[in-house]
Amino acid sequence: MVPLMATEFFKLRKRMMTWVVALILMGLVVLLYSVLWSASSRVQNFGEGHQFTGIDLRQALFLPGAVPYALQVVGTFGAILAIILAAGSIGSEYAWGTVRLMATVSSGRMKLILAKLVVVFGLTAVGTLLAIAVALAYSFIIAMYYGGASGSFLTATFVGDQFAAYGRTLLVLTPYMTLAFAVAVLGRSTLAGVGTGMGVAFAEPLINGLLGAAGSPWSNIPHYLLNTNRQIVLLQNKVPAVLPRLGGGAGGVPVHSALVAGLILAAYAVAFIAVALVLYRRRDIGSSQ
C-alpha cells in the first residue's frame, strides 16, 4: 500500500483544494484569537455574574491555553473542512473519469480505497498540527506584548494532556470524514459527500433540539448521534473557563462517559468505512464513466 499512499498523497498535495482547506483552518484560528484579543482590551467584566475580566481573557490567550483552544477550534470547525477533503479525495476520481484507471493499475480495489482513507486521515492530522502551530505563534505574540511569556507551564503532565486532547480531537473528526467519504462513493460525486456531511454537521444540532423538546422516547435518540457524543468527548479537553466553548455543549449533564461517547463515535466511523469498502468493491467501475 505504500506506493498507493505515496500516489494519493502526491495527488492531494498538488490539489488547490487541500491548500485552501488548510488556509481556511489556520485563518479561523487567527480570526478567533484576534477577536478575543480585541475583546480583552475592550470588555471590563463579562460572563454570568460578571465573573471574568478582560485581563482574565487576555491571560487565557497566553501560551498554556493555545493548544487546547486551537484543538477546540479544530474539533468544531475542522469537521467541515475534513468533510470537504474526504469527499473530494474519492469523488473527484468519478468526476475526472479516472476511477476505472486507478482501480485497474492498483494491486487491488481495497488497497486503493484504504490508501485514500489513510492519506486523508494523515492530512487531517497534519492540518490539526498546523492549527496548533498558528495558535502557539499568535499566543506567543500576545504573551510577549504583555510581558507574560513563560515556559514554566511545560510539564510532563501538561504535555500528556495535550497529546490526549489531540487524540480526542482527531477522534471526533473521524466519523464526519468517513461519512462524507462513504456517501461520495455511494453517490459517485464530491457534491454528494460534501452535501451529506455538511447537512449532518449543521442540521443535527437543530434536530437534536427538536427531539429533546418532544419528550420520551424521542429525547433519547440524540444520545446516540454524532453531535452529542462529539461534544462529550471535546468537553474532556481542558480549555480555560474564560474562553468561549465553541459548538455548544453536550446538553446539560452528559448522558455518557467520555469513554462510551468515544466508542460510539468509533463505531460510526467503522460502519462508514465498511459501507465505503463494500460499495467500492461490489460496484461495476465500468458503469461509472
Explain this structure to me?
By secondary structure, the chain is mainly alpha-helical. The chain has one domain. Helices cover 73% and strands 1% of the residues. It is built from ten helices and two strands. Strands 1-2 form a two-stranded antiparallel sheet. Strand 1 and strand 2 form a beta hairpin. Helix 6 packs across helix 7. The two termini are 25 Å apart.
Structural class: mainly alpha
Secondary structure: helix percent: over 70%
How many separate structural domains? 1
- Uncertain runs are none
Please tell me the overall pLDDT.
86
**Proportion of residues in extended strands:** under 5%
- Measured between the Cα atoms of the first and last residue, the distance is 25 Å
Tell me the series of helices and strands, N- to C-terminal: HHEEHHHHHHHH
Strand order of the largest sheet: 1-2
- Quaternary organisation of the protein chains: single chain
Shape: globular
Number of strands: 2
Q: What is the overall number of helices?
A: 10
Largest sheet: 2 strands, antiparallel
Task: Determine Rg (CA atoms, Å).
Answer: 21 Å
